[in-house]
TrEMBL record:
Main location: membrane
Pfam family, one: ABC_tran
Record-annotated membrane-spanning stretches: none
Any one GO MF annotation of this record: ABC-type amino acid transporter activity
Cellular compartments per GO CC: plasma membrane
Keywords attached to this entry: ATP-binding, Cell membrane, Membrane, Nucleotide-binding, Transport
Localization annotation: Cell membrane
Protein's name according to its UniProt entry: Amino acid ABC transporter ATP-binding protein
Bilayer topology annotation: Peripheral membrane protein
Listed InterPro entries: AAA+_ATPase, ABC_ATPase_HisP-typ, ABC_transporter-like_ATP-bd, ABC_transporter-like_CS, MetN_ABC_transporter-like, P-loop_NTPase
Amino acid sequence: MLEIMDIQKSFDGTQVLAGVDVQVNRGDVVAILGPSGSGKTTLLRCMNFLETADAGTMVFDGERFELGRISKKDIARLRKKTAFVFQNYNLFYNKTAIENVTEGLIVARKVSKARAVETGRRALDKVGLSDRYDYYPSQLSGGQQQRVAIARALAAEPEIIYFDEPTSALDPELTGEVLSVMRQLADEGMTMLIVTHEMGFAGTVSNKAVFMEKGKVVEAGDSKTFFERPRETRTKEFLHTIS
Ligand code: ADP
Protein backbone atom coordinates (compact mmCIF):
# COMPACT_ATOMS: atom_id res chain seq x y z
CA MET A 1 0.00 0.00 0.00
CA LEU A 2 2.76 2.45 0.97
CA GLU A 3 6.44 2.30 0.35
CA ILE A 4 9.16 4.80 1.19
CA MET A 5 12.53 4.44 -0.45
CA ASP A 6 15.76 6.17 0.47
CA ILE A 7 14.17 9.13 2.25
CA GLN A 8 16.70 11.81 3.22
CA LYS A 9 16.44 14.93 5.33
CA SER A 10 18.95 17.38 6.77
CA PHE A 11 18.44 20.28 9.14
CA ASP A 12 21.09 23.02 8.82
CA GLY A 13 23.58 20.67 7.21
CA THR A 14 23.07 17.87 9.75
CA GLN A 15 21.67 14.71 8.22
CA VAL A 16 18.74 13.42 10.28
CA LEU A 17 17.43 10.85 7.78
CA ALA A 18 20.24 9.18 5.88
CA GLY A 19 18.30 7.02 3.43
CA VAL A 20 15.45 5.23 5.19
CA ASP A 21 13.15 2.61 3.64
CA VAL A 22 9.76 1.61 5.02
CA GLN A 23 7.16 -0.77 3.58
CA VAL A 24 3.58 -0.85 4.80
CA ASN A 25 0.91 -3.30 3.67
CA ARG A 26 -2.78 -2.73 4.27
CA GLY A 27 -3.62 -3.74 7.84
CA ASP A 28 -0.02 -3.54 9.05
CA VAL A 29 0.80 -2.07 12.43
CA VAL A 30 4.38 -0.88 12.11
CA ALA A 31 6.29 0.15 15.23
CA ILE A 32 9.11 2.64 14.66
CA LEU A 33 11.60 2.25 17.47
CA GLY A 34 14.95 3.71 18.40
CA PRO A 35 16.79 5.96 20.81
CA SER A 36 15.90 9.60 21.16
CA GLY A 37 17.23 11.71 18.29
CA SER A 38 17.41 8.83 15.82
CA GLY A 39 15.03 10.54 13.35
CA LYS A 40 11.77 8.68 14.06
CA THR A 41 9.57 11.76 14.38
CA THR A 42 11.23 13.42 11.39
CA LEU A 43 10.52 10.30 9.32
CA LEU A 44 6.83 10.39 10.25
CA ARG A 45 6.60 14.15 9.65
CA CYS A 46 8.25 13.83 6.24
CA MET A 47 5.88 10.99 5.33
CA ASN A 48 2.92 13.24 6.12
CA PHE A 49 4.51 16.37 4.58
CA LEU A 50 4.68 18.27 7.84
CA GLU A 51 8.37 18.51 6.87
CA THR A 52 9.68 18.42 3.32
CA ALA A 53 12.11 15.59 2.67
CA ASP A 54 15.22 16.49 0.66
CA ALA A 55 14.98 13.32 -1.42
CA GLY A 56 13.34 9.94 -1.54
CA THR A 57 10.50 8.15 -3.27
CA MET A 58 7.02 7.36 -2.03
CA VAL A 59 4.73 4.83 -3.66
CA PHE A 60 1.18 5.12 -2.33
CA ASP A 61 -1.58 2.92 -3.78
CA GLY A 62 0.64 2.24 -6.79
CA GLU A 63 1.34 5.92 -7.56
CA ARG A 64 4.93 7.10 -7.42
CA PHE A 65 6.08 10.45 -6.00
CA GLU A 66 9.53 12.01 -5.75
CA LEU A 67 9.54 13.55 -2.29
CA GLY A 68 12.16 16.22 -3.01
CA ARG A 69 9.98 17.84 -5.68
CA ILE A 70 6.41 16.80 -5.01
CA SER A 71 3.69 19.31 -5.96
CA LYS A 72 1.33 20.99 -3.50
CA LYS A 73 -1.54 19.37 -5.36
CA ASP A 74 -0.16 15.87 -4.83
CA ILE A 75 0.54 16.64 -1.16
CA ALA A 76 -3.08 17.74 -0.68
CA ARG A 77 -4.29 14.58 -2.40
CA LEU A 78 -2.03 12.29 -0.35
CA ARG A 79 -2.97 14.00 2.91
CA LYS A 80 -6.57 12.88 2.35
CA LYS A 81 -5.39 9.28 2.63
CA THR A 82 -3.61 9.80 5.96
CA ALA A 83 -4.17 11.14 9.45
CA PHE A 84 -1.69 12.15 12.14
CA VAL A 85 -1.91 11.80 15.91
CA PHE A 86 0.54 14.09 17.69
CA GLN A 87 2.36 13.68 20.97
CA ASN A 88 0.60 16.75 22.39
CA TYR A 89 -2.85 16.07 20.87
CA ASN A 90 -2.93 19.34 18.85
CA LEU A 91 -6.56 20.04 19.71
CA PHE A 92 -8.27 23.41 19.34
CA TYR A 93 -8.67 24.51 22.94
CA ASN A 94 -11.61 26.82 22.23
CA LYS A 95 -13.59 24.01 20.59
CA THR A 96 -15.47 21.11 22.11
CA ALA A 97 -14.61 17.46 21.47
CA ILE A 98 -17.21 17.12 18.72
CA GLU A 99 -16.14 20.45 17.14
CA ASN A 100 -12.52 19.29 17.14
CA VAL A 101 -13.50 16.09 15.38
CA THR A 102 -15.82 17.71 12.80
CA GLU A 103 -13.80 20.87 11.99
CA GLY A 104 -11.60 19.20 9.36
CA LEU A 105 -14.55 17.45 7.75
CA ILE A 106 -16.58 20.65 7.44
CA VAL A 107 -13.79 23.08 6.50
CA ALA A 108 -11.34 20.98 4.49
CA ARG A 109 -13.58 18.25 3.12
CA LYS A 110 -16.74 20.33 2.65
CA VAL A 111 -18.93 17.73 4.36
CA SER A 112 -22.30 19.07 5.54
CA LYS A 113 -22.46 19.90 9.25
CA ALA A 114 -25.14 17.28 9.91
CA ARG A 115 -23.14 14.52 8.26
CA ALA A 116 -19.91 15.64 9.93
CA VAL A 117 -21.59 15.55 13.35
CA GLU A 118 -22.92 12.07 12.65
CA THR A 119 -19.45 10.84 11.62
CA GLY A 120 -17.84 12.69 14.53
CA ARG A 121 -20.17 11.17 17.10
CA ARG A 122 -19.48 7.69 15.74
CA ALA A 123 -15.74 8.33 16.01
CA LEU A 124 -16.04 9.63 19.58
CA ASP A 125 -18.20 6.63 20.49
CA LYS A 126 -15.52 4.35 19.13
CA VAL A 127 -12.85 5.79 21.44
CA GLY A 128 -15.18 5.58 24.46
CA LEU A 129 -16.16 9.26 24.67
CA SER A 130 -19.88 9.10 23.92
CA ASP A 131 -20.54 11.06 27.12
CA ARG A 132 -18.03 13.82 26.32
CA TYR A 133 -19.15 15.29 22.96
CA ASP A 134 -19.57 18.81 24.32
CA TYR A 135 -16.61 18.95 26.66
CA TYR A 136 -13.72 21.32 26.03
CA PRO A 137 -10.17 19.93 26.12
CA SER A 138 -9.55 21.71 29.44
CA GLN A 139 -12.41 19.65 30.93
CA LEU A 140 -10.85 16.37 29.76
CA SER A 141 -7.90 14.35 31.06
CA GLY A 142 -4.81 13.97 28.87
CA GLY A 143 -5.88 10.45 27.96
CA GLN A 144 -9.33 11.68 26.94
CA GLN A 145 -7.81 14.52 24.91
CA GLN A 146 -5.61 12.07 23.06
CA ARG A 147 -8.66 9.89 22.41
CA VAL A 148 -10.41 12.95 20.91
CA ALA A 149 -7.36 13.35 18.67
CA ILE A 150 -7.64 9.68 17.65
CA ALA A 151 -11.37 10.16 16.97
CA ARG A 152 -10.49 13.15 14.77
CA ALA A 153 -8.05 10.96 12.85
CA LEU A 154 -10.67 8.20 12.44
CA ALA A 155 -13.37 10.61 11.28
CA ALA A 156 -11.20 11.49 8.29
CA GLU A 157 -11.45 7.83 7.22
CA PRO A 158 -7.76 7.60 6.34
CA GLU A 159 -6.03 4.63 4.77
CA ILE A 160 -3.28 4.92 7.38
CA ILE A 161 -2.87 6.70 10.71
CA TYR A 162 0.55 7.96 11.81
CA PHE A 163 1.05 8.14 15.58
CA ASP A 164 3.97 10.18 16.92
CA GLU A 165 4.67 8.99 20.48
CA PRO A 166 0.97 9.20 21.33
CA THR A 167 1.38 8.40 25.02
CA SER A 168 4.62 10.14 25.89
CA ALA A 169 2.93 13.28 27.26
CA LEU A 170 0.62 11.22 29.49
CA ASP A 171 0.90 10.20 33.10
CA PRO A 172 1.42 6.45 33.32
CA GLU A 173 -2.09 5.81 34.64
CA LEU A 174 -3.59 7.43 31.51
CA THR A 175 -1.38 5.61 29.02
CA GLY A 176 -3.38 2.39 29.17
CA GLU A 177 -6.67 3.85 27.93
CA VAL A 178 -4.98 5.31 24.83
CA LEU A 179 -3.04 2.13 24.08
CA SER A 180 -6.20 0.09 24.49
CA VAL A 181 -8.01 2.21 21.86
CA MET A 182 -5.03 1.75 19.54
CA ARG A 183 -5.03 -1.99 20.19
CA GLN A 184 -8.72 -2.12 19.28
CA LEU A 185 -8.06 -0.25 16.01
CA ALA A 186 -5.25 -2.69 15.22
CA ASP A 187 -7.59 -5.63 15.85
CA GLU A 188 -10.09 -4.08 13.44
CA GLY A 189 -7.44 -3.95 10.72
CA MET A 190 -6.56 -0.25 10.75
CA THR A 191 -3.20 0.40 9.10
CA MET A 192 -0.96 2.27 11.53
CA LEU A 193 2.60 3.53 11.74
CA ILE A 194 3.53 4.20 15.34
CA VAL A 195 6.58 5.88 16.84
CA THR A 196 6.63 4.60 20.40
CA HIS A 197 8.74 3.85 23.43
CA GLU A 198 6.09 1.48 24.78
CA MET A 199 7.92 -1.76 24.10
CA GLY A 200 5.30 -4.04 25.65
CA PHE A 201 2.66 -2.48 23.44
CA ALA A 202 4.87 -2.57 20.33
CA GLY A 203 5.77 -6.20 20.99
CA THR A 204 2.17 -7.33 21.29
CA VAL A 205 0.31 -5.06 18.86
CA SER A 206 2.67 -4.41 15.95
CA ASN A 207 3.30 -6.99 13.26
CA LYS A 208 6.35 -5.16 11.90
CA ALA A 209 9.13 -3.31 13.66
CA VAL A 210 11.64 -0.82 12.32
CA PHE A 211 14.60 0.01 14.55
CA MET A 212 16.36 3.26 13.71
CA GLU A 213 19.54 4.84 14.89
CA LYS A 214 21.33 7.96 13.64
CA GLY A 215 18.93 8.41 10.75
CA LYS A 216 19.26 4.88 9.42
CA VAL A 217 17.34 1.64 9.77
CA VAL A 218 19.46 -0.79 11.78
CA GLU A 219 16.99 -3.67 11.62
CA ALA A 220 13.46 -4.15 10.29
CA GLY A 221 11.23 -7.13 10.07
CA ASP A 222 8.30 -9.00 11.52
CA SER A 223 7.78 -8.11 15.17
CA LYS A 224 7.88 -11.63 16.50
CA THR A 225 11.38 -12.23 15.16
CA PHE A 226 12.45 -8.69 15.99
CA PHE A 227 11.53 -8.92 19.65
CA GLU A 228 12.33 -12.58 20.25
CA ARG A 229 15.35 -13.14 18.03
CA PRO A 230 16.84 -9.80 16.93
CA ARG A 231 19.68 -10.18 14.46
CA GLU A 232 21.78 -7.10 15.11
CA THR A 233 23.88 -6.59 18.23
CA ARG A 234 22.70 -2.98 18.43
CA THR A 235 19.06 -4.11 18.44
CA LYS A 236 19.75 -6.59 21.22
CA GLU A 237 21.42 -3.86 23.29
CA PHE A 238 18.52 -1.48 22.70
CA LEU A 239 15.86 -4.04 23.64
CA HIS A 240 17.89 -4.99 26.66
CA THR A 241 18.32 -1.42 27.99
CA ILE A 242 14.73 -0.39 27.41
CA SER A 243 12.93 -3.43 28.84
P1 ADP B 1 13.42 11.04 17.40
O1 ADP B 1 11.98 11.17 17.04
O2 ADP B 1 14.00 9.72 17.03
O3 ADP B 1 13.70 11.39 18.83
P2 ADP B 1 13.73 13.40 15.79
O4 ADP B 1 13.27 13.06 14.43
O5 ADP B 1 12.81 14.16 16.67
O6 ADP B 1 14.24 12.08 16.52
O7 ADP B 1 15.07 14.24 15.69
C1 ADP B 1 16.23 13.79 15.02
C2 ADP B 1 17.27 14.90 15.00
O8 ADP B 1 16.81 15.96 14.19
C3 ADP B 1 17.54 15.49 16.37
O9 ADP B 1 18.92 15.72 16.49
C4 ADP B 1 16.78 16.79 16.34
O10 ADP B 1 17.38 17.74 17.16
C5 ADP B 1 16.84 17.18 14.90
N1 ADP B 1 15.68 17.98 14.47
C6 ADP B 1 14.40 17.57 14.43
N2 ADP B 1 13.59 18.53 13.97
C7 ADP B 1 14.38 19.61 13.72
C8 ADP B 1 14.14 20.93 13.22
N3 ADP B 1 12.90 21.34 12.89
N4 ADP B 1 15.19 21.75 13.08
C9 ADP B 1 16.46 21.35 13.39
N5 ADP B 1 16.74 20.12 13.87
C10 ADP B 1 15.73 19.26 14.03
